[in-house]
Amino acid sequence: MDSAFSLYLEVREMPAQLSFTKMHGLGNSYIYVNGFEQALSGKRLPELARNVSDPNTGIGADGLIVMAPSETAEVKMRIFNKDGSEAKNCGNALRCVAKYVYEKGMVKNTTFHIETLSGLVRVNVHVVNGTVDEVTVDMGTPKLKSSDLPMTGGTTEKDLVSVPIEVDGDTALMTGVSMGNPHGVFFVDDIEEAPVKSYGPILADHHRLFPEGLNVEFVQVVNSHELQFRVWERGSGITRACGTGACAAVVAAVLNNYVEQGKEITVHLLGGDMKIFWSNEGSVYMRGPAVTICEGLYLMGT
Ligand SMILES: N[C@H](CCC[C@H](N)C(=O)O)C(=O)O
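Structure for Diaminopimelate epimerase, as requested:
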């Protein structure tokens, strides 16, 4: 079948309207589409993500999450940022997908796995009267080499702890952490003064240094078990919360000796608090809420 004809079929495959659920994790909202129930054209998902994310001409969210059958887990999750770029992991969406599939009866156990582009993730839903209020996620072991981030610029295999970065006329110290997606963490004295809007867009798309882009986090250490947190997300800009980012922040705080590994840390994000625990065995655990906002029918912008 020639490419033009297959593209025509691809275009035709997208339904005229899509059932969706809007959910959020600490204010980081996405449009969730159930690919078990409706056929979705893979090639059109980045465009769909841009369309549904627009607050004026779409539904309004930080991006699109597609749930689909998996051969290795109860469900597969694909993540598309507001700009249509696809990400390999998303902490807040993992909690919301876990809530969705449990409450819809698509899974029966309270502990199960979700397949992502960064691998299999184990989740445990906390149920109160049949409703999931919180979810605990094993986010796996952070990767700490420049080649993992990835980052270029002469630090090929060195660790990424407190690496000097030239940005916006400054030299700032960044700690790089991959949680399946790339994060750069900067420690600041006052979170309210953090250069989110200046450093964020410069570094998020600084592909010479970060070939796959970067989620840019700013952290103020409150005490040995609390962090203040802000984020400029790759592909979505400022969001009220970032689950993988909160994990990266705690890992970076341990690596910089601000907090201890093996202790539960409360991360204060714009959208609320998340509990992060980097176990001495290696896995980072994230615990936080998941909320269903609404369900509806998206008429594909007709
Ligand atoms: N913008 C991220 C994906 C979403 C991550 C975030 N919303 C979370 O909860 O982890 C990236 O491009 O890697």
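The first strand starts at residue 18 and ends at 25.
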